[in-house]
Structure formats: structure tokens, C-alpha cells
Hints:
Helix content: 25-40%
Low-confidence stretches: none
Distance between the termini: 24 Å
Largest sheet: 6 strands, parallel
Radius of gyration: 25 Å
Strand content: 5-15%
Strand order of the largest sheet: 3-2-1-4-5-6
Number of strands: 11
Amino acid sequence: MKSKSELSEFIAAQRRHEQYAGLPLAGIRVIDMATVMAAPYAATLLGDYGAEVIKVENPSAPDAIRGWGVVEDKGIQPFWAVVGRNKFPITLNLKVAESRRILVDLIRQADVFIENMRPGALEKLGIGRDDLLRENPGLIIGTVSGYGQSGPYAGRPGFGTLAEGFSGFTYLNAQPGGPPTNAPMALADFIAGVHLAFAVMIALRHQKRGVAGGQIIDLALYEPLFCMLGPDFLSCQLTGDVPTPKGNELSYVVPRNNYRTRDGRWVTMSCAAQKPFERLMECVGHPEMNEDPRFKINEERIKDPNRGVINQVVSEWVGSRDLQDVIDTCEQLGITIGPIASMRDVAENVHFRERGSMVELEDPLTGLLLKIPNVPFRLLGTPGRIRFPGLPLGSANDVIYRDVLGYSKEELQKMQAGGAI
């Protein structure tokens, strides 16, 4: 277990110029004052590609994800280790006037400020978005809220689960006749985070720190997911028919489903394109279905009685064979199918390993070797990288306040005694 001084040395070393060599966002500074998933994940992605991300947390009420799924016997916070990666955590108590002044000092030297407070909350603290833009005319403010900064629901609290329900996603995510089912992960949050990172990159094209190009990015949690349901929404408007849940299937293509193998494993299949479908029918022993008008084209296959017949013959064939036999046979015939993997399957998979889809990092506090997902996309000329996992609360206080704002050790001690940090 590293001491506080050893951790500070590690953090200081991570801020050196050579650590950012070759990273495309080197020189961009992001102040991440958001909590939980959506907005912080945008900062995470920017940090993966070289932005210096300073994570601001309340010393007495840190980011909630630090407490999610903690592996107590190893001292690891899995959610924080992943989403807090490449970030330098500092603490500020914004109820204290001195703390608000420190935040403004940081923002004057930043390119991006990311937050997810309720509309009006920053203004009540005396550091509203317009005030911050006056202090730094080049500041890009990325703000995420449940329902956006405008409209009748703007003041409502919102989390990803609510956004998924509000967007129309949860209604469709169900078995026919069954109850709506929530996603098993922070789906709306992560999708919103990706969209916010993209918006920040657009805004950076015409921005210069402290000079010009600053603007506010207003992102509602539900809107990115709603946009992904655009075809369903438009279809409803055009026909008057409300799209209904199809379980593991899709309303507009067949077959697309999950099937159980003889050895109790599961495969997932999406085989609606015409030629692969014809090969599938030959594979499962029903070549005559390729000439049957009910199955000859996708527009006929999607009709409820017809899709049921297709699912039955595929399910029977898959259920009569073990997983590897099903995969090998289908791959030889160009039929698009794949295994449904557990986290253990993923960890042991040769493709994940050899492609570099995961990376091993030493946790700088405990010394444990952590295996986490790598950066989610490859820039072959200027690749990103994960330099370190999420760090302990306030562990970058000494380094950031000293090296970025120029505070002395005595000043830091005074601020801590006064409750500012």
C-alpha cells in the first residue's frame, strides 16, 4: 500500500509532458465536476486520448460510484477504477466561499468544464455558467441533466434508468406480453457520455482557452437514446401503430434471436440478409422454405405466424447440437452467429486478449494488477491509452493545487483547516 507522499509522486510523474506524448488531446485541460456515469464518462473518454482531467469531488460526499460494488477484501472500487481512470482527483467544498474561488481559478486555466448539477444550482452558488464564460471566454461547458435545460421538465431530477423509460427504450425492452425490463447496466448514461464527448470535440474546433469560442453544451439524458429509436418513432407517426416489444427479436427483420444449444449454452443470431438466410434454411434441413412465399423475402418473414415457424426450425436445429458444432457449422456456411459470453468467457477469450480489448494496469495504491477494458476505439495514427485506474479521493490535491494554482504547503493546510478542500 503506497503512502500519501508516494501517491503524490506517482501523480506528479503522470502529469509530466512525456506521459502525453503522441496523445491527440495533449494540452487540453478538462475540469470534471460531474458525478456518477453520464457526464463523467465523457471526461473519461477525453482523458483516454490525452486531455488532462481534473476530477472535482465534495470531500464529505464523493462521487457515488466509488461505493458501487466495492471488493472489500482487495480494497478496489470497480466502477471508480474504470470510469475514474486517467483522472486527477481533488476535493472542493463548494459551500465554502474560498472553495468557489478556487474552482473559478481552475476554470480560468481550463478548456472544458463538465458538470451535471440541476438547472440553476450553479447560479445559486454564485458561479453560474454565464459567470464562468465571462471568466474564461474560451470555456466549453458540457452539462448533462435528466431532461435538459429547457422545457417543462427541466427542473426534474433524472437518472439513466428514468431516461431509458422516458425515451421509449424500456417499453420495447420486454418479452411479448411481459413487463418492461430495465437494461442491466447504465445504458442511457454511457450513450449520453459518448455523445457529450463528441459534442465537446466539435466545440473544441473553434475554441481558444481564455480567449474565444466558449459555449454551453446542453445534453438531456434521454435524447441520445431517443434518437437511436428514431425509426420506431417515425414509423409510429406514419402508421399510427405503436411498436410493441419483441423480446430478443426485432420487428423489422427475421431471424434475429437467441437460441439454446444441446450443451446448455446460448448463441445469438442475426441472419436476415437474403443469401445468409437461404444458407441458414439449407443448414437447418429446410431448403424448401426458400421457395415458400411465406419466407421468400424479409417483408413476409417478419409477419407473426411466419417468424414463429422460422424460430422453431432454427431452435430445433441449434438445440440438437453442442455450442462449438453450431458455431463451426454456421461459420463455414457464412451464417452470422456468435456465442453469448459471460464475463468469465470474455476474460478467457483469445480474440479479446490478442486484439488488446483489455489492458492490465497496476493499481497505484494497492499494487494489485487490474484487468479492465481498453480504450473503446483505435486511432491507428494517434492511439489513446489508459495510463492508470481511478485514484483515491483527493489524492491529487497537493500536486494540482501546487503545480496548477501555485499554492504553498502552508496555504493548502489553511484551506484544509477552513473546510475549503
